[in-house]
Amino acid sequence: MAIALCVLVTLTVASEFYRGGRVISKHTGQGMFASMVQLTHRNTRRYGGYIVTSAWWWSSSALPGRPSISTKSRRWDTATR
Q1: Is residue 37 a contact partner of residue 30, using CB atoms and an 8 Å limit?
Q2: Which of 39, 56, 65, 78 is deepest in the core (most CB within 10 A)?
Q3: What's the Rg (C-alpha) of the chain?
Q4: CA–CA dist 51, 48 (Å, integer)
Q5: Alpha helices in the chain (DSSP H)
């Protein structure tokens, strides 16, 4: 489920970059990548937030799959001391 949400967020962010880049590309005649860079520079707060949000989702999706610290490996047996 977490991976599905990450994919959804990533596709949404990619869609926003593609749509914005396409509009700038049509108006300026630049290539798509250059248009996306210009888009990010024009509205740093919005598109930077998209990048951070996408990175946060991907990093937080890895956390549920991580094994937690086991208390069994650090058993304090007071009877043997």
Answers
A1: no
A2: 39
A3: 22
A4: 5
A5: 2-28, 32-42, 44-62
